[in-house]
Amino acid sequence: MHFVEVILPLSLYKTFTYSVSEAEYNYIKKGMRVAVPFGKNKIYTALVVETHKNRPILYDAKEIHQILDEKPIVTEIQIAHWQWIATYYMCAIGDVYRGAMPSALLLESETIISQKQEGFVDENLLSDDEFLIYEALQQQSSLKVQDIINILNKKNIFPVIQRLINKNILVLQEEIQEKYTAKRIRYVKLHSKYESNEGLGQLLETLKNANKQKEIVLSYFQLSASEKKPITVKKLIDAANSSSTIIKTLIDKEIFEEYYIQVDRVNFSGKTQEGQLQLSEAQQIALDTIKGSFTQKEVCLLHGVTSSGKNRNLYQTY
């Protein structure tokens, strides 16, 4: 039996073994990509990092689907560098591989493919399989890999897709989800039409029968005079002992204008003095363990639940 050891573009810390034929074994080199099945129905672009004849003990090695490259596209130096990154930063080698490779070289069964809008396509230069994919994309905006498998009625379709990408005909759709959302604080200010003396008189006349609304407006003036800075909705509600519903009414009446200011979620006012930090017994034990580990290794993983004092430990360490 002949086998290859591969890295999968997933958050996995180890490599996986797949079986190959003798001819494939003699052809495959480190740094070449192969399409492999993983899970029930998914196919991924894996990277070969070793060839060997050692059957895996814990599982039966699946066969690869196909070889995707004619020669290595990743050098052994790059592979060694990725392995060092995974070890040093204590992260999955699959994450390093996925982050280092261009997305066009990481086709998988869930990849969404569409036609590139710019450029002219000479249909006469397309093979039969390439034309079938191109024609399908004239009828719908995008296709999944499984759709293309069904259209061509074959499993080994990654080379066809790769050729169309290289010909600048296809493009992969990457859906990027923003995990971080900026914190925004809601403020109010007096509408510009009431800023003059005449406008203030008009404002008081408007609110003469709306006591609760008048109280909020008066609280706004008091805060403006005492603090000399923008006033948040929350502070105004607290000062007037009122509710956000009345604030909304004043905004709808165009007495107040609302606006938002983006602020950092982390607010650090200055360097804390080391003497001010008092560690608990558990934190002190963790700190001593961290310092001891640095005598043997350059890195240390500090693991703990939220709000357990990890940052305080790190501050003391440095």
Largest sheet: 6 strands, mixed
Task: Catalogue the unreliable spans.
Answer: 174-179
* E-strand count: 12
Strand order of the largest sheet: 5-2-1-4-3-6
Strand portion, in percent?
Answer: 15-25%
Coarse structural class = alpha+beta
Calculate the mean pLDDT score and round it.
82
Helix content: 25-40%
Distance between the termini: 52 Å
Order of helices and strands: EEHEEEEHHEHEHHEEHHEHHEHH
Q: What would you report as the Rg, rounded to the nearest angstrom?
A: 31 Å
Topology:
Layout: E1 2-7, E2 16-20, H1 22-27, E3 33-38, E4 42-52, E5 62-63, E6 66-67, H2 76-88, H3 93-100, E7 112-115, H4 128-139, E8 142-144, H5 145-152, H6 158-166, E9 170-173, E10 183-190, H7 197-206, H8 211-227, E11 231-232, H9 233-240, H10 244-252, E12 256-263, H11 281-293, H12 310-317
Parallel strand pairs: 2-5
Antiparallel strand pairs: 1-2, 1-4, 3-4, 3-6, 7-8, 7-9, 10-11, 10-12
Question: Can you describe this structure?
Answer:
Helix 8 (211-227) crosses helix 9 (233-240). The chain is α+β, with helices and mostly antiparallel strands and 318 residues long. The longest helix has 17 residues, at 211-227. The model is unreliable at 174-179 (pLDDT under 50). 38% of the residues lie in helices and 19% in strands. A 6-stranded mixed β-sheet has the order 5-2-1-4-3-6. A 3-stranded antiparallel β-sheet has the order 8-7-9. It contains 12 helices and 12 strands. The chain is flat and about 90 Å long. The two termini are 52 Å apart.
